[in-house]
Structure formats: structure tokens, C-alpha cells
Amino acid sequence: MATDLTRDPGPPCNPVVVAPEEFAATAAHYIARSLQSAAMERERIGLALSGGTGPRPVYEALARAPGLPWGRVEFYFADERAVPPHDSESNFRLVEESLLNHLPETPAAVRRMEGERPDIAGAAADYERLLPARLDVLVLGIGADGHTASLFPLDPAVNEDQRRVLAVRAPVPPEWRITVTPPVIRAARTRLVLAAGESKAQAVARACAGPYDPLACPAQLARNATWIMDGPAASRLHLGEA
Fold it and tell me: pTM of the predicted model, to two decimals?
């Protein structure tokens, strides 16, 4: 059955706003707490991470968190650029450098998106088969244009309700990406959206409090997630108002 993406999922985002210097530690704490909660219910824990520049300090802080069951965690990715795994633009490289290389034990699995494959659509289809039915923890970001994962404004992938992973074209280079789709975002047991910096303020306000239109602002697909942001990113939200 098709999902009505025009219907606001409600309730609005659950904002956690901290000072910029507390952002990385706070975001890492929420991810760690979500992993610990999942570990109480399931033997294997599916964690999907996003890339970009913002999450690096968060993942570095997460690597230092004590007592996490890394040996039971299966790593997945929310999106990837069509580049080799150790390219400077690679989300896998970011996660490897900031988190995977610093873990005290080997994870249960690291399932990267093979963005370097010439058949990018085939790589997306293969990744779709790897994904669990529901991720336990999905960590997303938001771009200044309102995109999340590699779901960009006005892209038909934002309306996808059957396929869970797609190859898409981005409006900025690298042109081709692999991304999870709305069904994956909706199904995740815990969703955390990270936003830092004043450059994200307008997009955050639109995603959290603007008219519901995910085609124009795809981050609204995670509108009812927990949003962890610093003060500058939250500066256009009217927190505490009825």
C-alpha cells in the first residue's frame, strides 16, 4: 500500500539544544544510549550512520564512549557518494577514520555502500538486500537545502514507498549517490537527526516547524525524530512557544 507522504507524521521534532561546545558529546551520548537500549532487546544491533562534515567530532566522541557492545553492532550507511571507499568524499572513509579505527573490539559487521561500482543502480539494489527489515538506530543529518541522507529537494526518490535503497543524482558533486529511502527512515526504531551551525538554522526551522512538504524539505521525513542541535542551528526555532 502506498504511503501518503503529504500527511504530517506528527508530533513535531523533539529538539535537544545544547551549546556548540557540548554538541559532539551530547550527540554521542544519545547514540550510545540508543545502542544500549537496543542491546537489551536484540542480539544484533543495526546502526546506520550518515556522512558529511558535521558528524566527525560526534563519531570521535562515540568511539570513546565506554561499555558499548560493539561486537554486536552491524554498521550500515544512510548514503554514500559514487567514489572509492578511501576517497576524501567517501562517507565510509569518514566513519572509518573517526569511529571504526578506534573501537576497542571488532564490530559484528561493517556493510558499506559500494559507491565506486560502475553499475551504481546495481550497487543500490545489492545494498537493499543487505539491509535489515528495521534498523535499530538511524543517524541522519540535514543540509542547508533541507536534504537528508541523499534525498534532495524535488527528487522523485523522496516519494519512493517501495524500494528501500536507490541510486540518485545529486544537485552538487559527486553527482551520483546511493541513498536509503523514506521506508527505511520511517521503519527505524530510533532516529536521531544531527544539526550544527548557523548555516543549518533555516533548514532546521523549516524541517521542524514549517508546513509539511517533504518533497521541498526531505528532512521532514524524520520530523518526529529526536533532533540534536547546537544553539546556532536552533536559532530560528521558537522553542517553548505554544
Answer: 0.94
